[in-house]
Specification:
The protein is α/β, with parallel strands linked by helices. It contains eleven helices and ten strands.
């Protein structure tokens, strides 16, 4: 290891600089970091400090604040956000989506719009696309908007190629229909088929920056496992935006550990973390 790298790796994050980083993250992406996250934040930004040949966290912070392109801030948010996700995560939600789609299709609906807000590396949005394919037949027009604050995960989502291990939660018949096996060296990967990928549009969107540019109406919005990081005020404002964007009877689906209690009374709870406008 070079001396410069060693200096970065031993750099300590003092409380004052940590509080400034914490405030910046809260202001820009709504994520409230507790004091217990200091070591995690220090470790996560160290990699970027090494690349920039910066040896103190304060100098790193000044670099983020002074970067007029905003790219350093994006990279900081990338390194802080928790991106855990999986295909068919909280799988009951996709059964609810499927039964609603069949019902709406039976009523003659042909145009469908969905949003995976905070889509991470794309597994949620592609699971929604598999669900659309399973539920609908004949001619229809279905589009899924998938957004996240992190450019890093959006890049992975756009590629749509996943290690075999990450695809084990996909039922084999569905995987067989909508994904293709690709080999790289002695590792196996699965690539989402082009007709599925065409249904999904990935874009960067910061959930703190309201109002959102979309007009709606949307049929279903998935906003799962991100609101837990936000304070009540932000969650309230988000619920107002989701309400504006959904069609009457449309669904807002949040994470199983999340709730709209004291957040919004514009929705009716119709299932575990499933709300209808
Ligand atoms: C734990 S993942 C959840 C992924 C998926 N929704 C699921 O439930 O499996 C949370 C995602 O929220 C994103 N995120 C955090 N703050 C955000 C913000 N202010 N705007 C948009 N996305 C944000 C993170 O980048 C991360 O990919």
């Amino acid at each position: 290891m070079k001396d410069a790298e060693r200096m970065t790796d031993t750099a300590t994050l003092d409380d004052r600089t940590y509080h400034s980083i914490k405030d910046l993250i809260y202001e820009k992406c709504g994520i409230k970091l507790g004091d217990a996250k200091k070591a995690l934040v220090a470790a996560r930004v160290r990699k970027r400090m090494r690349e920039l040949q910066i040896f103190s966290h304060d100098e790193y912070l000044q670099n983020v604040l002074g970067d007029e392109t905003g790219m350093e801030l994006v990279l900081l948010m990338d390194s802080i956000s928790t991106n855990v996700t999986s295909f068919y995560r909280e799988s009951g939600h996709f059964e609810i989506m499927e039964s609603n789609l069949r019902k709406w299709a039976d009523e003659g609906q042909k145009r469908f719009r969905f949003w995976s807000a905070a889509c991470s590396s794309g597994e949620e949005a592609y699971t929604m696309a598999f669900t659309v394919k399973q539920a609908l037949s004949g001619a229809y027009d279905a589009r899924i908007l998938a957004t996240d604050i992190s450019t890093k995960v959006l890049g992975l989502a756009h590629q749509g190629v996943y290690e075999e291990e990450k695809t084990l939660s996909i039922p084999p018949d569905i995987k067989g229909k909508y994904m293709e096996k690709v080999k790289s060296g002695d590792k196996a990967f699965f690539s989402v088929r082009p007709d599925i990928r065409e249904m999904v549009l990935f874009r960067r969107l910061n959930l703190t920056e309201m109002p959102f540019p979309m007009k709606g109406p949307m049929d279903i919005i998935f906003c799962r496992n991100v609101m837990i990081y936000f304070d009540k005020d932000l969650r309230r404002r988000l619920a107002v935006e989701f309400h504006r964007l959904l069609k009457p009877g449309g669904l807002l689906i949040i994470g199983l550990t999340e709730s709209l209690i004291e957040i919004s009374d514009g929705f009716t709870r119709t299932g575990p973390s499933v709300y209808t406008k």
